Structures are given as C-alpha cells and as structure tokens.
C-alpha cells in the first residue's frame, strides 16, 4: 500500500541525529581498529628487538667490550630500531602527502584501498539546494564506507563548475572532518537553498484553466510533501478549493476522500475520462475541418469557373495617356526607383497561352503591354505627377480613347 509521507521538522532532526550518531560510531570503530593494528605491530617489533638484544648479551657474556665494539653495537641497535619503525609504517599503510592540501594531516594519512570505487554522484554546480546535495552525498557514501576521511576526500568528486572552484580555493589544513566541510559548503551556497513551502502557498494553489487534472494533481502532491508539519486532514481539505469547476470538483464536494491514496485513485480515474473526452473532441474537430476543406475547395472551384466565365476585369479609366516608352521598360525603371511596389506573383491559370509572358504578374497568359492592371498602375502614377517623362509630347492629343477589353486569356 502506497502512503504519502508528511515529514515534520522533528522527524528530519531525528533523522540527522541518527545519521550523525551512526557516522560517529563508525569513526570510533575505525580509530579503534587502527589503534589495535598499531599496537600489535609495535608489540611484534618490541618482541623481536628484545630477542635480538638478549641473544647478543648471551654471546658476549664474560668478554670485555672495547669502546669501539660498544659504538658498533650501538650503531647496530639504532639501525634495527630504524628498520623496526619502517616496518611499522609499512604495516599500518600510512599515506603522507607532500603537497599543500585542504585537509589536515590525519585525513591525508588514511589509506584508501585501490579497490574502493566511488559511487556515481549527482553533480553540483552551485545553482541548486546545497543541503539536498549533502544529504544525497551522505546516502551514496554510507552504502560504500563509513570512514569520515574518505568522505572528505571524495566530496570534491561530486562538484563541478563554480562549486569545484570554491572547493579548490579553500585554505590549507582547513578541513578537519566531513561535518565541518558540509557546514562550510552549505554556508557558501546558502543563497541557493530551496524556499520552504508554507500552508499559505498551499491555500493559494489553483488549477490552471487549461491544465490537465493529472498534471495538477502531481503538482499538488509535490507541494503538500514540501509543507512541513502538514496533517492529512488539511492536505485533503485544501484540494477542493484548488480544483477548477467541473465534474471532479463536484464529486469531491459530494463525497470527500478519506485518504491521499483514495484521492490519487479517484483523480487518476477522472484523468482517464478527461483524456478520452479530449480525444473525442479532437477527432470530431478533425472531421469538421475535413468537411470544411471539402466545401471550401468546391466553393473555390465554382468561383473560379464563374470568374472565368465573366472574363477579365475592365479598364478603370475612360482615357489613357499616350506613352513614349514600352510599359515593360516603365515597369522595370519604376521598380528600380521604388516608385512602384513589387507586385505579388500570380499563378498561371490552367489553359492559358504559354507563349505570352507578363512581367507584372510574373505568369503566362498575356503580354506585359496587354496587362490591364499595369496600364491602370501607370496611369495612376502619371496623374500623381510621378511618371511625367514617359508622356509622349508630340501627340496632338495626350489621351487615347479607352481601349476595348482584350480577348480573355488569363486574369490580369
């Protein structure tokens, strides 16, 4: 059975206390084991040393030892002591670092086995909650080892970016244990601590107008888990005002859930119904769009046929000015001088005469000189005083009669 955990402040404090107690217990056991190994090694060395000295005294009994022999014997004894100390250090496997490091000597003296493999950490770059990262690191390391020194020396492997730069800038011999390192880390990145969610935030929580029920319920359950000290009764009470009006809210009002599991199950059932209705609406909308596209195509075909039957649009002016330059050239020069805007390209109608090309419409079906639209544009610009240099002055009459509509070939 799945239950929702409402972690209170007392529970979190108790959890931290238990974890710290476990860590201290493991550290104590580790120190005791190391002390026992040291004592055993020293005892073996002392026993061996005493045996050698006793043997030498037995062999030299009754003989007078000269000062030179005494110095040689002393030298041999010092050599054996130095050898014994060297053997002790090799048995304890003490590691000494010659580089200036952040950790104190006691941490660096702890031997890390070559078989130790650090766990896979979630990297911290200084932009998220530092407390959550420390807890995640402790959980991962507790599974591998309880040695505090190894924790300290492994912590930098979980950092990157700005956080790793901060770690590398720590003063020499400034880290004595993992607890002090964690406190310095959390203090450095305290600005990134996650804000505590209160009951007021839960009261202001509302489902969006277009927000699916499943998405909202996930957001609601995540919020209630972050509210410290929130009871089950309040968690169930605040869900109804947070829901938008609808069938699910009515169901919650008529029959309030008794547990969070019941609320979650009922919300999941309603979400499935909601998704099914949304799929039905989508299919119906696609069907209406297909029908609309079919009617639109038919309408365009009928209007196109009607336009073709009606023929081209007639001239706008009763008289047109006689020009001294072909209209195709006037069009090019007017476009270059930005007197006329570039027209939109028109598609070539079916059945058009492909031997004729209109530069204004950029399609086939009629010549540029025959284009009624271009003729009207040029006449408008002449009346506006923009194309006066294209007027033919030698003509007795500036205007020509209105041309008859040309034979229909394509839209102009």
UniProtKB/TrEMBL annotation:
<dbReference type="InterPro" id="IPR005162">
    <property type="entry name" value="Retrotrans_gag_dom"/>
</dbReference>
<feature type="region of interest" description="Disordered">
    <location>
        <begin position="48"/>
        <end position="91"/>
    </location>
</feature>
<feature type="region of interest" description="Disordered">
    <location>
        <begin position="279"/>
        <end position="325"/>
    </location>
</feature>
<feature type="compositionally biased region" description="Basic and acidic residues">
    <location>
        <begin position="77"/>
        <end position="91"/>
    </location>
</feature>
<feature type="domain" description="Retrotransposon gag">
    <location>
        <begin position="154"/>
        <end position="229"/>
    </location>
</feature>
<feature type="region of interest" description="Disordered">
    <location>
        <begin position="390"/>
        <end position="412"/>
    </location>
</feature>
<protein>
    <submittedName>
        <fullName>Uncharacterized protein LOC106780606</fullName>
    </submittedName>
</protein>
<dbReference type="Pfam" id="PF03732">
    <property type="entry name" value="Retrotrans_gag"/>
</dbReference>
<feature type="compositionally biased region" description="Polar residues">
    <location>
        <begin position="401"/>
        <end position="412"/>
    </location>
</feature>
<feature type="compositionally biased region" description="Basic and acidic residues">
    <location>
        <begin position="279"/>
        <end position="298"/>
    </location>
</feature>
């Amino acid at each position: 059975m799945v239950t929702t955990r409402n972690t209170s402040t007392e529970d979190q404090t108790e959890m931290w206390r238990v974890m710290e107690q476990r860590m201290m217990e493991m550290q104590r056991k580790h120190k005791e084991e190391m002390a026992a190994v040291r004592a055993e090694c020293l005892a073996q060395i002392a026993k061996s040393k005493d045996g050698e000295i006793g043997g030498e005294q037995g062999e030299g009994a009754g003989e007078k030892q000269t000062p030179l022999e005494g110095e040689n014997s002393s030298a041999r004894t010092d050599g054996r002591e130095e050898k014994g100390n060297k053997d002790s250090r090799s048995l304890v496997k003490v590691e000494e670092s010659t580089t200036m490091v952040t950790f104190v000597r006691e941490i660096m003296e702890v031997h890390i086995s070559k078989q130790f493999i650090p766990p896979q950490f979630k990297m911290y770059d200084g932009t998220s909650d530092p407390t959550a990262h420390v807890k995640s690191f402790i959980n991962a390391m507790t599974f591998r080892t309880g040695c505090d020194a190894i924790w300290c020396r492994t912590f930098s492997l979980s950092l990157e970016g700005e956080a790793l730069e901060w770690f590398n800038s720590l003063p020499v011999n400034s880290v004595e244990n993992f607890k002090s390192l964690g406190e310095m880390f959390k203090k450095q990145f305290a600005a990134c601590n996650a804000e505590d969610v209160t009951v007021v935030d839960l009261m202001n929580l509302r489902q969006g107008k277009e927000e699916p029920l499943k998405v909202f319920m996930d957001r609601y359950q995540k919020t209630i888990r972050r509210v410290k000290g929130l009871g089950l009764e309040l968690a169930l009470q605040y869900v109804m005002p947070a829901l938008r009006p609808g069938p699910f809210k009515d169901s919650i009002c008529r029959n309030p859930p008794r547990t969070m599991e019941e609320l979650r199950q009922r919300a999941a059932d309603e979400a499935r119904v909601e998704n099914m209705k949304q799929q039905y609406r989508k299919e119906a909308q696609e069907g209406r769009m297909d029908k609309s596209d079919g009617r639109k195509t038919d309408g365009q075909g009928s209007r196109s046929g009607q336009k073709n039957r009606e023929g081209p649009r007639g001239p706008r002016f009763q008289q047109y000015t006689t020009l001294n330059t072909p209209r195709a050239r006037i069009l090019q020069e007017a476009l270059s001088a930005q007197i006329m805007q570039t027209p939109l390209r028109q598609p070539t109608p079916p059945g058009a005469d492909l031997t004729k090309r209109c530069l204004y419409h950029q399609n086939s079906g009629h010549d540029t000189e025959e284009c009624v639209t271009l003729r009207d544009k040029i006449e408008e610009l002449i009346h506006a005083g923009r194309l006066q240099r294209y007027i033919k002055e030698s003509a007795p009459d500036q205007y020509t009669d209105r041309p008859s509509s040309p034979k229909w070939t394509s839209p102009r």
